[in-house]
């Protein structure tokens, strides 16, 4: 009697799991939309150093460029030494 009860319970559980698998496997596939194209925004200005006004005027040895470059270089090194 106990054996039959266990067997029925196992069969019921197997039937439930089989139903769950059947429902899951028969669901429709997720199909992405066909018109999914990512378009990059147009960039108006380039980020090149060569095209900046400083480089056009006198290059990397101009006073205007060195006034900005050298202090930023010094500060970045001091920050790296301080954190390191």
UniProtKB/TrEMBL annotation:
<dbReference type="GO" id="GO:0005741">
    <property type="term" value="C:mitochondrial outer membrane"/>
</dbReference>
<dbReference type="GO" id="GO:0042802">
    <property type="term" value="F:identical protein binding"/>
</dbReference>
<dbReference type="GO" id="GO:0097345">
    <property type="term" value="P:mitochondrial outer membrane permeabilization"/>
</dbReference>
<dbReference type="InterPro" id="IPR010548">
    <property type="entry name" value="BNIP3"/>
</dbReference>
<protein>
    <submittedName>
        <fullName>BNIP3 protein</fullName>
    </submittedName>
</protein>
<dbReference type="GO" id="GO:0043065">
    <property type="term" value="P:positive regulation of apoptotic process"/>
</dbReference>
<feature type="transmembrane region" description="Helical">
    <location>
        <begin position="65"/>
        <end position="83"/>
    </location>
</feature>
<keyword id="KW-0053">Apoptosis</keyword>
<dbReference type="GO" id="GO:0005635">
    <property type="term" value="C:nuclear envelope"/>
</dbReference>
<keyword id="KW-0812">Transmembrane</keyword>
<dbReference type="GO" id="GO:0005783">
    <property type="term" value="C:endoplasmic reticulum"/>
</dbReference>
<dbReference type="Pfam" id="PF06553">
    <property type="entry name" value="BNIP3"/>
</dbReference>
<keyword id="KW-0472">Membrane</keyword>
<keyword id="KW-1133">Transmembrane helix</keyword>
<comment type="similarity">
    <text>Belongs to the NIP3 family.</text>
</comment>
<keyword id="KW-0496">Mitochondrion</keyword>
């Amino acid at each position: 009697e106990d054996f039959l009860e266990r067997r029925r319970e196992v069969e019921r559980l197997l039937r439930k799991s089989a139903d769950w698998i059947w429902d899951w496997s028969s669901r429709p596939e997720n199909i992405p939309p066909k018109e999914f194209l990512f378009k990059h925004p147009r960039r108006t200005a380039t980020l090149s150093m060569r095209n900046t006004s400083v480089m056009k005027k006198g290059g990397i040895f101009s006073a205007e460029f060195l006034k900005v470059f050298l202090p930023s270089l010094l500060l970045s090194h001091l920050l790296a030494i301080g954190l390191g």
